[in-house]
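Handoff note, outgoing to incoming analyst
You'll be picking up this chain. Sequence as last confirmed:
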Amino acid sequence: MRIADSMLVKLAADFGIALGAAAMVITVFGFAYGLSQLLFGPLGDRYGKYLVIAWGCIACAFTAALCGVATDFSVLLAARMIAGASCASLIPLSMAWIGDVVVYEERQSVLARFLIGQILGLSSGILLGGISADYLDWRFPFFVISACFLVTGIALVRMNRLLPAHARRLHRADGHALARMVSEFRRVVEVDWARKVLGTVAVEGALVYGGLAFVPTHLHAVHRISLSGAGGLVMLFGLGGFVFAMRSKSLVRQLGEVGLVRFGALLMAASLVVIAASPVWWLSIPACFVFGLGFYMMHNTLQINATQMAPERRGAAVAAFASCFFIGQSAGVAAGGALLEPLGTAPLLAAAGVGVAVIGERFARLRARRSG
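Most recent structure output, in case you need it:
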C-alpha cells in the first residue's frame, strides 16, 4: 500500500515525467482498493472469508510482479490499479473473519494486535521503497512483495483445510451474483447503526487524512525542514499506533469504547492544532506521536463496531466500512489540496483538528446512547 510513496522522485526521473504525474501510482492504487471492497465483502460471505483471503494473496503475488515488469508508465499505472483491486481482498476480510471467530469481549484486543502487522507493513513499505529508490532498482521491492504474497497464499490455502467448520462457515445466498451483492450491501445500510458507523468513518477518513497528508508540506514550508525529514517525523504516527496496540487491553478496560473515541479524537485535534500553531518544529515530534495514538484509539473502536453492525453479513459490512474510509480519505485530500492555496497550511490543519474533535464527540455520544 505504501511502497511507492518513497519512489516518486525515482519514478519521475526513470520515466521522464513530472512528480505530480508519478504520484498517480498511489492514486490509482487507492481508488481501486476502495471500490473493490464492495466486491470482496459479499464474496467472502458467500465462499468463505479465509479462502478468499488466501486466494487473494496468490492474486496479489501476480499483480505485484506485474508492477515489477512494467515497461512504461502507463503499464505501471494499469498494474498498480489491478494490484490495488487484488489487495482489497485482504485487510477488511481479515477483520471480518476475526469478528466471526473471536468473541466480542476479546475482539478489540485481537484487532489491536492485528493492527501491529498493518503498522509494521506501512512503515517497512516506506523504508523499503526509499532504500530501493536510493540504492537499488525501483522494481526490486515489487518482486520481494510478490514472493512474500505467494508463500503466504499457499500457506493460507493449506491452513484453510484444517480450520474447524465454524471458522470456514459460508453465508449461502440464492440468485444472480450481482443481485446478491447489491442485496448484501442494501441490507447492511438498512441497519440504522450501520449507517451511523459508515458515515462517521467516511468523515473521519476525510478529516484525518485531509490534515495528515499536508503535515510534511506545512513543516517544510513553515519550518524549512527537508521533505525527507518531515516525512520521517510523520512516521511517528505509526509509533503512536504501535503503543496503542501494545496497551489496548488496559486502555479498553480503563476508558471503554466511548472514552476511546472521545479522548482519541481530542488527542488528534490537539496534535493538529499544535503542529499548525507551534513556532518551533520540534513540538511536531510529540504531536505526530500523539496523533497516531489518538487515531488508533478512535479508529480501532470504529473497527470493532464495524465487525458487529451487521453480524450476518459481516464481510459486506466490513468491506463497506473500508470502502467508506478510503473514499473519505480521497475526498479529504482532494478538498485539502483545493483549499491549500487560499487558506494556507496552518488554518487547514487547525480546521481538520476541530472537525475531528466534533465528529469524535458526536460518535461518542451515539455510542453511549446505544450502550444505555
